[in-house]
Amino acid sequence: MPTDESLTLHPRTHPAAAAGRAAPSDPLRRWRMAGLILPIAFLALIEALVRAAILPAHLVPAPSSIFETLWQLGGERLGRHIGASTLRVLAGFGIGAAFALLAGAAMGLSRRLDALFDPAFQALRAIPSLAWVPILLLWMGIDEAPKIALVAIGAFFPVQLSVVAGIRGVDRKLLELGEVNRLSRRALFTRILLPASLPQIFTGLRTGLSLAWMFMVAAELIAATRGLGYLLSEGRETGRPDLVFGAILLLALLGKLSDSVLKALEARVLRWRDTASDQAVSGGVR
């Protein structure tokens, strides 16, 4: 009969073996560097096209004028806008993801609950973000509550869907192995179902985080006095494309940074995996 150690999905590597495989060179290093240089080269191209009057400056401002506009806003004022948007995303994403993990786990473990709630969730998921705004403003006023609630709604559905799909997608042989070893329902969930579904759950979390930024902009476009969505609205109303593009660049940068943090957490939590992509990287990629 297999021992308890054989049921874990976190195999331990012997120190000697780990030392023999320590820190291989990254075969994708040049491509990663090129990926960082590519957006800079794109901005340089836009700068050149605007300076050459090929692109109209009143529609596509030069990146230098965008950076100058952000500089003129001042670090303190710009920090307030960035801080307000970031706090709304973090609060809304945290609340939405927490409820999504609970609801997704319950629906993934119980087909009855899935049959009961899935039709309603699928219908609610199809509602556009702007359609929620008047309802939330009517129910919660114009303070922070409706903005955070809208972000939470945006983060909830992709995370919930990924949790259900992750649990349902666990290999049946792993479940049979747990039943043969008479694992309790709790041990079956914590030692088999949860680890096996974590890759898909992290994919849902990253998708939910990106949607959280989108829903945050929708909330701030309607009712806000600070935030990057407010800067977008101010730039549109005052006819300043440099301010609009500046806010868009900041949103892109913040979205990338937050996704990189979550991606690094995923790599740390799932470092026990031995997937085809890991093997390709360790063996060299063309």
Please give a structural write-up.
- With 286 residues, the protein is mostly helical.
- It has a domain at 81-220 and 250-271: MetI-like fold (Orthogonal Bundle), CATH 1.10.3720.10.
- Helices cover 77% and strands 0% of the residues.
- The protein has twelve helices and no strands.
- The chain has helices at residues 15-20, 29-51, 63-73, 75-109, 111-125, 129-140, 144-168, 172-180, 185-222, 228-237, 241-269, 276-283.
- Helix 9 runs antiparallel to helix 11 (241-269).
- The chain is globular, with a radius of gyration of 24 Å.
- The two termini are 43 Å apart.
Task: Give the structure's gist in a few sentences.
The chain has 286 residues and is mostly helical.
* Weakly predicted, low-confidence segments: 4-20
The total strand number stands at 0
Q: Using the 3D structure, state the CATH architecture of the domain at 81-220 and 250-271.
A: Orthogonal Bundle
Question: What kind of sheet is the major sheet?
Answer: none
How large is the count of helical segments? 12
Q: N- to C-terminal separation?
A: 43 Å
What fraction of the residues are assigned to beta strands by DSSP? under 5%
Highest-level CATH class of the domain at 81-220 and 250-271: Mainly Alpha
CATH superfamily of the domain at 81-220 and 250-271: MetI-like
Task: Report helical residue fraction.
Answer: over 70%
- Global Rg: 24 Å
Query: For the residues shown, what is the average pLDDT?
Result: 84
- CATH fold descriptor of the domain at 81-220 and 250-271: MetI-like fold
Helix and strand string, N-terminal first?
Answer: HHHHHHHHHHHH
Structural class: mainly alpha
